[in-house]
Structures are given as structure tokens and as C-alpha cells.
Predict the 3D structure of the following.
Amino acid sequence: MKRFLPLTAGLAIALTACAGSGSSEPPVTIPAGDLVVKAVSGLRFDATEYGPIPAGDIDISYVNEDSMRHTLIVAKEDTKIGTFKLVVASKGDADSGTIALDAGTYTLICDVPGHNNMRASLTVE
Ligand SMILES: [Cu+2]
């Protein structure tokens, strides 16, 4: 790590340091939510079916137990619902959000290119 780089030239320095985590990673705290989905190694969610959960405002928590970036969107018959999107950039990351869903069957999707296998069903009733 070159900490003593002179900064006199006014260069735009691209930050290359690891963003975020401090000296030690805290244990993953899984947020409480109506639905907790985990991204696990092998380009999978931790289940292929989630629910049933009650219709209404649903708090979804997304936890990354894999070592790469994953996303979570909700679709109904392959049409994405709203702007809801959770992103977990690296291992240990968690994200959460609330989405209003009526009763029905939905698909949870990671839309990172190449992650086509990351689909699961969500039943809301
Ligand atoms: Cu993914």
C-alpha cells in the first residue's frame, strides 16, 4: 500500500483500496424480515421455493453467503415488479426492502448476467 504517494499533480486518483470493511468483518447479522433469502455458492438461492407468506407489505432480506455480487428482483410471469431490487455486493453483505404483493405466485430472480439459475418461486397468499 503506497500511503505516501505525493498528491501534488492534481491527478484524479482512482481509489483502489478495498472499500467498506474495516480490520475485521463483523458477523453477518441477518435482518429480521418476513422473508429471508440467501445467495449461496453455486449461483443459487438457498431454496427453490419460498413462502407461503401473507399478502401485503413484505419485508424481504437478502444475505450474501457467496463470494460474488448478487441481486434480487421479484417478477410475476416474467414481468419485473416495480423498481424493487436488492443488491449484495460481496460476502457477508445484506440488503433489505419492502414490496407490496398481492396473493399469487412470483419468481425471485438474480439478474446478474450468467446467473440464470438463480430463480426461485415465492408463494404469497
Ligand atoms: Cu446471482
Summary: Confidence is low (pLDDT under 50) at residues 5-22. The chain is about 0% helix and 45% strand.
